[in-house]
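Throughout our pipeline, every protein is held as a single compact record rather than as scattered files. Such a record has a labelled line for the sequence and another for the backbone structure tokens. The remainder of this section carries one protein's record, kept here as part of the documentation:
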Amino acid sequence: MLTCLLLSHDFEPAWANAFPQEIQFETLDNYEDCAQKLLRKRYDFALLEIDFLLTPKTDPTPLEHFTAIFQALRHNYPHLPLLVLGPLSQTNNLARAVRAGADGYLITPLAPAALQLALDHLQQAKLTQGELTHLRLAQAPIDWAQLGTSQNPALSKQLSQIRALAMTDSPLLLQGEVGVGKEQVARWAHEQSPSRLAAFIQVQCRRAKKQIENELFGYEKGAFQGAQASRLGQVELAHGGTLFLKNIEALSPSAQDKLLQMLRKGVFTRHGGDALMQAKIRLIASSEIDLIASSKAAAFNEDLLYRFQSASFTLPPLRDRLADLPQIIRYILKRLEETYRKGIQGLEPEALDALRNYLFPGNFKELNYLLERAYGLSQPPYIGLSAFPLGGSVPETSPLTPAPPLPLSNLKISAARRRVVAQWEPQYLAALLKEYRGQINHSAAAAGITDRQLRSLMRKHGIRKEAYKIPGK
């Protein structure tokens, strides 16, 4: 179904019958109501009758008048497709409207083929814009260039050191829990470096042994069955820039050896080749585990770890940065408002208090998902507590319910944190699976973790998805 905002002096124009019944029209006859309408609701496109644009004050060549109208609409609603329509006698003015900023025009009476072409184009544009919005939000959940300050002393010191090291070629290792912002800090470090204008290439190391080696270092034609042409690796594509290895702890031993060789000598060979290839890159890696402990268990190359030890940083989880929470929430809501323009100004005090009492196992990723969901469910000007899972009353098993007090004063902070998380984690998983009816993919997305990580947590606490599925579904 497509929704259309129609600007017309006629609330029931005869040509509207030519449109499919799936299109829902809402008609306005003045600009003042238009601005308020667009703030309260999102439309798939707007349709402006040329007679509506041709006000009594319009001169015979109304290009400047049209330009002012469309510039105002584009400034406030940049993603709203704008179409104009009118009779054949107004073709010149319809063309002027397109020149002034409209996306296209239709001639009345409407020809079925032309109408269907325009609707198909709008439907495709809607899908494309949705994909672009998703990618934009997913790729930059936290902008560390703007959030490069913190009231957490440890993080403030780390960011200052990373900024200084970014001016050198020293490899960086960013460790921490899922969702603490390792990728965003890596991008931020790249932007602080002398090679900021060169490529930033990201590689997920959780791949099969040969697959990850071929992706990193490339291969020659005929290197293996199916290699019908030579292929550049990500190391070559990152030449002169930054190579970011995500989850380096999952890198195969042979790939670790080849990476260490490249760091030592500045050269490597493609799979199936013997020519030495130059490697001039800045290396940044991330890990969700303690690589020092992993190297002692012979699971990670100790010599490779030495390359990172002088510039290794463990980023704190969000629960240790709750003083920064209002600043981070303001930024995320500002970014959402720039994209969707709903008129949301912030959170109600009860909602902010609930978030302050939440442990955020998914860290920034989870906060981002929670706020995106709440933003979509809310009406301006403020987001209330009812927009967060699982409703306004926040049931006992809700993800936003603070953990009950425990006798923790005789424990070190690390042990106390583990005990609180161990008690709270199964409650969170139960509430999450209950809300999404046992659907792993939706539950994992809401928590800001992968399906695999969610299943691992469920096994850890003996939780089965079948207990949350609706019988017969």
About this structure: The two ends are 26 Å apart (CA to CA). The CA atoms of residues 143 and 229 lie 39 Å apart. Confidence is low (pLDDT under 50) at residues 390-399, 401-406. The longest strand covers residues 2-7.
